[in-house]
């Protein structure tokens, strides 16, 4: 992990973006995250079928637990992200995943000064498009500036590269993208969720993480060893837990098990 602190990254982002009128979300402690800092509200018995399991058995059990989540349409995702990714300091804005800056929630679309829907598990890695299913799953969809979304493209996740000017603290090279430190674990847990949720038994590709980059159109996302390290270094905080609860309560009615039980990652991979 890079040595830059979250405060350093956000200060740089403010300097780079403040002049063009884009606000940056304040550096928040866990107590300042959306909808309060209560621990994740896991329904009683939700993970009973996973108890005592490891490896493929745990993977299969978790798939059975979360595989009945409801699918949104791609249009419905716009409105859902305005709720799940609202700026804790101003609910009329959304927090943009890679830069950490904020933008008016209603300024969504395809223009260079707007935000759109970033698929952290790239659509082309499994060719699932935007039909209801993996292409509309809130656990890996996040608001992102159009230009930064384009820079990330369909790259796998790894460390290294040149800093992204529009999103200080993020780095890109020819075959990978490295997100800022504050969200590395969030990204990793979204990828792991997708691998367990979409197992090839529902008409969609069997999505799996692997330990390489350059996966292109294959239904794989890398780099697993790096993602596992990010998952450990940046554990779930209260804001991520609150988002998990919102997706469960208000939208899909399933949960990300790697937020609720971070230990499941090492138990599977």
Which percent band covers the strand fraction?
A: 5-15%
Biggest beta sheet attributes: 4 strands, mixed
Mean pLDDT: 88
Number of helices: 9
How do the helices and strands follow one another from N- to C-terminus?
HHHEEEEEHEEEEHEEHHHH
Spans where pLDDT lies below 50 across 5 or more residues: 1-38
Distance between the termini: 20 Å
Got a strand count?
11
Net shape: globular
Overall tally of domains:
1
Q: How much helix is in the residues?
A: 25-40%
Lateral arrangement of strands in the main beta sheet: 6-9-8-7
Radius of gyration: 17 Å
Which structural class is indicated by helix and strand composition? alpha+beta
What is this entry, summarized?
This protein is 33% helix and 13% strand. It has nine helices and eleven strands.
Mind sketching the topology for me?
Layout: H1 6-17, H2 55-66, H3 74-84, E1 86-87, E2 90-95, E3 102-104, E4 115-119, E5 141-145, H4 146-152, E6 156-157, E7 162-163, E8 171-172, E9 176-178, H5 184-197, E10 208-209, E11 220-221, H6 224-233, H7 238-251, H8 257-260, H9 264-268
Parallel strand pairs: 6-9, 10-11
Antiparallel strand pairs: 1-2, 2-3, 4-5, 7-8, 8-9
Structure, described:
With 269 residues, this protein is an alpha+beta fold. The protein has one domain. The protein is 33% helix and 13% strand. The protein is built from nine helices and eleven strands. The protein has a four-stranded mixed beta sheet with strand order 6-9-8-7, with no helix packed on it. The protein has a three-stranded antiparallel beta sheet with strand order 1-2-3. α5 packs across α6 (224-233). The chain is globular and about 50 Å long. 47% of the residues are buried. Mean pLDDT is 88; it is low at 1-38.
């Amino acid at each position: 992990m890079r040595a830059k602190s979250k405060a350093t990254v956000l200060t740089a982002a403010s300097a780079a973006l403040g002049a063009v009128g884009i606000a940056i979300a304040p550096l928040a402690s866990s107590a300042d995250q959306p909808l309060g800092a209560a621990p994740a509200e896991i329904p009683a018995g939700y993970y009973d079928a996973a108890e005592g399991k490891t490896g493929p058995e745990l993977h299969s059990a978790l798939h059975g637990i979360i595989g009945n989540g409801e699918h949104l349409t791609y249009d419905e995702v716009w409105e859902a992200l305005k709720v799940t990714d609202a700026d804790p300091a101003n609910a009329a804005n959304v927090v943009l995943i890679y830069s950490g800056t904020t933008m008016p929630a209603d300024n969504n679309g395809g223009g260079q000064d707007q935000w759109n829907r970033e698929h952290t598990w790239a659509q082309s890695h499994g060719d699932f498009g935007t039909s209801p299913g993996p292409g509309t799953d809130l656990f890996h969809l996040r608001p992102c500036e159009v230009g930064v979304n384009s820079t990330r493209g369909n790259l796998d996740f790894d460390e290294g590269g040149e800093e992204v000017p529009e999103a200080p603290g993020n780095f890109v090279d020819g075959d990978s993208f490295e997100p800022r430190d504050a969200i590395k674990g969030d990204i990793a847990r979204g990828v792991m969720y997708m691998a367990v949720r979409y197992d090839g038994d529902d008409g969609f590709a069997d999505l799996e993480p692997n330990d390489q980059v350059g996966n292109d159109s294959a239904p794989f996302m890398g780099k697993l060893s790096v993602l596992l390290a990010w998952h450990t270094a940046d554990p779930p905080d209260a804001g991520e837990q609150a988002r998990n609860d919102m997706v469960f309560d208000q939208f899909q009615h399933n949960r990300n098990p790697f937020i609720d039980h971070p230990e499941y990652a090492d138990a599977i991979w």
